[in-house]
Specification:
This protein is an alpha/beta fold and about 260 residues long. Helix content is about 25%, strand content about 25%. It contains six helices and eleven strands. It has helices at about 35-55, 70-75, 95-105, 130-135, 190-200, 235-250; strands spanning about 1-5, 10, 35, 55-65, 80-85, 115, 140-150, 155-160, 165-175, 175-180, 205.
Length: about 260
Amino acid sequence: MKIAVCVKQVPTRDWQPRVNADGTWIRDDDASFEMNEPDAYALEEALRLRETLGGDVVVCSAGPARVAQVLREALARGADRALHVSSDALATADASTVGTALADAMRDEAFDLVLTGLQSDDQGFAQTGVVLAERLGASHATIVMEVQADAAARSLRVKRELEGGWFQWIALPMPAVLTIQSGINQLRYATLKGIMAAKKKELRVVEPAAAAAATLTITKLAAPDKTRHTHMIEGSAAEAAAELLRLLRDEARVLA
């Protein structure tokens, strides 16, 4: 079974974002990066399917040269080889542009199954996997919590998370694209042996097949304004109570 996993490199969650000079994205030149968490769960699910059914796991990503960092990490965790669609323009591209670039690079591989994380931790569109399925002409399912694959019958049975605590089981044929929900499994981490082995694994770098026109453009990005502050009320208990009542009535307007 030939499985692809699409991963994205995102700023680390504990890094304090700084907006760039033109206000269209963060200052990524002084940022630290990591693998998108939902994509890590997708990679783990692919590795478990390979252990059960056999085959290869190919990890794919689109973006600038620094993306090789997360691809090497995925190889260290157990992926067999990597594919990097290299372009600086894809660092901040929308889901349609990224999905199209990945599909063009992955099409000739004829994957049986493609897994992605449900959404990215930075932009959070949750659309790249859906666009990828459309471009590859594959069936797809989103917010997947469990995967049961029958390689011989080339079919899948997956459990999807719905609203209100409900779940849905659906069957779909392969090739297929699934977007994986975080928490579907227990993540494994790279061992020293895996890190050393990753250095010898193939990491193929390709250019985007075509310069796709962006369908979404970020025109302005800004940190949220702090609109609330602490108001210290001084004076005696009676004076403080009277002032609190006034503030609740006249400023907060929660009292008539």
